[in-house]
Amino acid sequence: MNTQVNTRSASGCKPKIFKASELKTLNARSNRRGLIQLAGHICVMVCSGYLGTIADNWLIKTPVLIIYGFSFAAMFAPLHECSHRTAFANNRLNDFVAWIAGLLSFYNSDFYRRYHKWHHRYAQVDGKDPELNDPKPSNFWEYLIELSGFNWWVGKLITHYRVATGKLESYCYIGEDAREEVIRSTRLQLAIYGMAIAVSLIFKQPWFFTMWLLPLAVGQPIVRFILLAEHTGCTNNDNPLTNTRTTLTWFPLLVWNIPFHAEHHLYPSIPFHALPQAHQQLEKHFSVVEDGYLTVHRNIMASF
Description:
By secondary structure, this protein is mainly α. The chain has one domain. About 60% of the residues lie in helices and about 0% in strands. It contains 13 helices and 2 strands; from the N terminus they run H-H-H-H-H-H-H-H-H-H-E-H-H-E-H. The chain has a two-stranded parallel sheet. Helix 4 packs antiparallel against helix 5 (about 90-105). It is globular, with a radius of gyration of 20 Å. The two termini are about 20 Å apart.
């Protein structure tokens, strides 16, 4: 763990580490880089899905199902990047990909964009950060439940139901001017799921279950394993140098460089493809930089 910390100023403003010219270079968005990353993600999804349909040996089917499921659950990554409108230079493309990625990963992009903006504004501040409404595990049993994805499924079902029925009172980050858009978007998404179920029933095939629901359930624990590392065990205050963790890993590109999370929180305008470069200059300023997810989770369990 890196123990060198630069605290923020007494005014509470974020520390300014990059010069304006450096940040301008890092902030450069790219349709090409985004499309290449997205194409690679979809290729993993399509190839693993195809292998799963033709394989007749469970020694092959099982790992392929895990990869296929992870590719669905990890659609959260392009959803997250597009919600910041940094995946592509074109904002319409960002919004379109965000909606499709949310559809595949069981998020609603119009709701999530506003939720996530609030999370960045009040990261790790009790009573303000909406992510803190879902308490972190405090014992091994809660930890296993969280990793299973059970809490996530329950939360998503409740949230989609409330939004689709217009019950937005508890979501302070959904402004009056956005209510109708978020409700319509969520209803359309649920309608698409309903049509997919109907097609499966009409053809008497378990397509909705075998091609989406089961794989997503299988892949979700891997995503929970990654996301639980972002803030768990970090400080509960508004200091971005101490309240967010970067995890050094060999597969950051598979999840659109989300492991460089402290860099992302300090400078959310930096696109995913520039985060490794930003990390080289920012690492010494952060207090929570870990070598690998196994180390992070060993420390989480040791804290129980």
